[in-house]
Amino acid sequence: MQSYAVVGILLDDIDPVVNVMKLEKAPKETYADIGGLETQIQEIKESVELPLTHPELYQDMGIKSPKGGEGPKLVRELFRVAEECAPSIIFIDEIDAVGTKRYDSNCGGEREIQRTMLELLNQLDGFDSAGDVKVIMATNRIETLDPALIRPGRIDRKIEFPLPDENTRRRIFSIHTSRMNLGEDVNIEDYVTAKDDLSGSDVKAICTEAGLLALRERRTRIIKQDFDKAKQSILFKKKEGLPENLYM
Q: What angle do CA 46, 52, 54 make, to 5 degrees?
């Protein structure tokens, strides 16, 4: 005799692809883990966090809070699920994949992308900025986005995340090396003050790569040579072209 067990019930009214987009557990990272960007963090708090936690502040002031896939159907499902799970935040990374400037095309793939973008515009037009759902979009190529997508009324706040300055780089290095066993020959200031266009993710990648290099040689302490090789590797990978600043 065979026995069976029910391991889960798939809800019929929610697309499985949309369902996996839901964040089950809140991340443990805080603003303190970023290192710098105080102005940008403050703008995000004002645009996203404060309207969800204290909407009465905007009502008392008589102002409205700023508005913050695969195909049109998924876009509709995404917004519907977000409303059902409110308060919630919709985060769309690399929005330039579907939000680029429109042009005539007979390619089926391009037409599908344009239909997806039109559905996104439709959802944003019917979006209640005073509601419990906020939308955040991120892109490295803001100049390629369709003006209809980023016009006021759809995307009311644009926040630029520039490359970190020296003080910010120092704080980011400090965050990612705080638990590392550094050799006496490692002087983080050498990398902080270097004239390299390093992003926050580049700094993290250098620290991670330096640790991996030490592990490969079965060492528990990370030495200057590890950081030098790691930095060279990261810069080499970026040589093909540095991504533009990040916008939200």
A: 75
- Mean predicted lDDT score pLDDT of the chain: 79
What are 137's strand-pairing partners?
A: 92
Rg (CA), the chain: 22
Q: Write out the two tokens for 143.
A: 């100049």
Residue 155 and residue 137 in contact, taking contact as beta carbons nearer than 8 Å: yes
- CA distances for 206 relative to 99, 195, 209, 227, 236, angstroms: 32, 15, 5, 7, 12
The partner residues of 222 in beta bridges, in order of sequence, read 182
The structure's pTM equals 0.63
Domains within the chain, CATH numbers bracketed: 70-160 (3.40.50.300), 166-240 (1.10.8.60)
Give DSSP secondary structure letters for 61-96: HT-PPPP---HHHHHHHHHHHHHHT-SEEEEESSGG
Q: Residues 204-218: pLDDT tens digits?
A: 999 999 999 999 999
Number of neighbouring beta carbons within 10 Å of residue 167: 11
In three-state form (DSSP H/G/I as H, E/B as E, the rest C), the secondary structure along 139-202 is: ECCHHHECHHHHCCCCCCCCCEECCCCHHHHHHHHHHHHCCCCECCCCCHHHHHCCCCCCCHHH
Contact criterion met (CB below 8 Å) for 207 and 180: yes
pLDDT, one tens digit per residue, over 70-116 is 577 788 888 888 888 888 888 888 888 877 766 555 555 566 777 88
